[in-house]
Amino acid sequence: HVQLVESGGGSVQNGGYLKLSCTASASTYAHYCMGWFRQAPGKEREGVATIERDGSTRHADSVKGRFTASRDNVQNTLYLQMNSLKPEDTAMYFCSDFNNWGPGTQVTVS
User: If you average pLDDT over residues 85-95, what whole number do you get?
Assistant: First the structure.
């Protein structure tokens, strides 16, 4: 069982930036494909980015060119750099290994 904890959320203005982090409890994290997801009020959870064990990434069209997922397998940490934030990016952001989920971190863009 891997425990995941997100951090780095906050409130920013339109066009601002944030960097989210997700720390995993187990060193086996390095063997997992990981993902960033988000859920806005009244909407379904959606995928934002996935990152494979080797660091290769895929990003949703809605964030492509603005968000960048990365990972540090030594620090057991996943990152999501979010630039040029828009109000529609407002959501709770989660990381996951597709079996376990963190509690989420809130991002609000106004």
Answer: 98
Instruction: Identify the residue whose tokens are 């066009």.
Output: 15
Spatial contact of 81 and 66, defined as CB atoms under 8 Å apart:
no
d(CA 65, CA 11): 21
Q: How confident is the model at residue 32 (pLDDT cuts 50, 70, 90)?
A: confident
Alpha carbons 81 and 98: distance in angstroms, whole number:
20
Distance CA 91, CA 46 (A): 10
